[in-house]
Design a protein that fits this description.
By secondary structure, this protein is of the alpha+beta class. About 25% of the residues lie in helices and about 35% in strands. The strands form three sheets. The chain has a four-stranded mixed beta sheet, sandwiched between helices. The chain has a three-stranded antiparallel beta sheet with strand order 5-4-9. It has a two-stranded antiparallel ribbon with strand order 1-2. β1 and β2 form a beta hairpin. The longest helix has 14 residues. It starts with 6 loop residues before the first strand and ends with a helix. About 30% of the residues are buried.
Length: about 170
């Protein structure tokens, strides 16, 4: 089954399920669905940053400071956060990512409910090659410089989630 064939829950502006549709149809019709974003930090408190593969349906070859993805039909945010983090980081045995905030993203690419999580990953990562072209761990200051200099194309939903997370935490991020 291709990613475009995966069945997703379609939700309304209050995050209530209104139906189901294949991912390709959800994207093509701009239907609201659900996603998780997981900020992964290593033992040195650096943030996992990666470039998405060119084959991604949304924002191919863009950089992201979150791992994550869409929720399958009937999947909870918590279950999806752990599944996506382990899949994309290429690890097993992560602690359950901590949910931090939730918002309705509306912008380039469409609209989706976004639940932002965080997890500590002290394990050696081996990112999923179908999802990740390149990766590194950056300090928050290094990440902020990379965002500000504008040389890397960042996924717009990840930038919005990062901005909201920084505001949510204030100076503690």
């Amino acid at each position: 089954m291709s990613a475009a064939d995966e069945v997703l829950d379609v939700v309304d502006r209050e995050d209530r399920v209104t139906g189901q549709a294949p991912r390709g149809e959800v994207y093509a019709r701009g239907l609201i669905h659900r996603c998780v974003f997981v900020l992964a930090r290593d033992a040195e408190d650096r943030i996992f940053v990666h470039r998405r593969t060119a084959s991604k349906l949304v924002f191919p070859s863009h950089y992201d400071m979150f791992v994550g993805g869409v929720l399958g039909a009937g999947e909870s945010y918590a279950r999806a956060a752990l599944r996506e983090a382990e899949e994309e980081l290429g690890v097993r045995g992560l602690a359950q990512p901590e949910p931090l905030l939730k918002f309705l993203y509306e912008g380039p690419g469409g609209a989706w409910w976004s639940c932002v999580h965080e997890v500590r990953c002290d394990l050696p990562v081996s990112p999923q090659v179908s999802e990740v072209d390149w990766h590194t761990f950056l300090t928050r200051e290094e990440l902020d410089r990379r965002i500000a200099d504008g040389r890397w194309p960042w996924v717009p939903d990840g930038l919005e989630a990062y901005r909201r997370l920084r505001a949510h935490r204030g100076s503690r991020q």
